[in-house]
Amino acid sequence: MRVMLIPSGSHDVAEYFEKGAYSDLSGYMLMAESSVADLASRVEGDKKYLSVSRFRGNFVVRGSSPYEEDTWDWVKIGDNTIFRNFKPCTRCILTTVDPETGVLDPNKEPLRTLGTYRQLAEAIRPVMGQSPILGINLGLYTPGIVKVGDAVYVNCD
Known about the structure:
Elements: E1 28-32, H1 33-42, E2 59-61, E3 74-77, E4 81-90, H2 111-114, H3 125-128, E5 133-142, E6 152-155
Parallel strand pairs: 1-2
Antiparallel strand pairs: 1-5, 3-4, 3-6, 4-5
């Protein structure tokens, strides 16, 4: 990862954090391997194709319970890179395309199965949409260098 923006001055966390630019919604998405494994256990048929690469996350963590990342408010990776969880990651039709082959799943999996049990609360669907969720969108709060294998620290308010 390469830092593209280093904010100048100080900013109140309640008012500022970098969500990224030139991306669908967020420059950063984090998910747990265990969440994808749980989803794979629910999809019928051949599950060998279902890997974390299908969900195109920037950060994949190991060692947490399935969907535990939903509860993380702040995430620190490595020595000093800090992110804020600003919303669940709503999933789109691209999750039904195998990133290795470019082939669309004819049964719309894994999106179809995900939609049976990972929906946003009814009250916020008019604002955030009807898509199922998997992973969390992060905003960069404190820039730094992140490496594969770095420790991940979380805070739940």
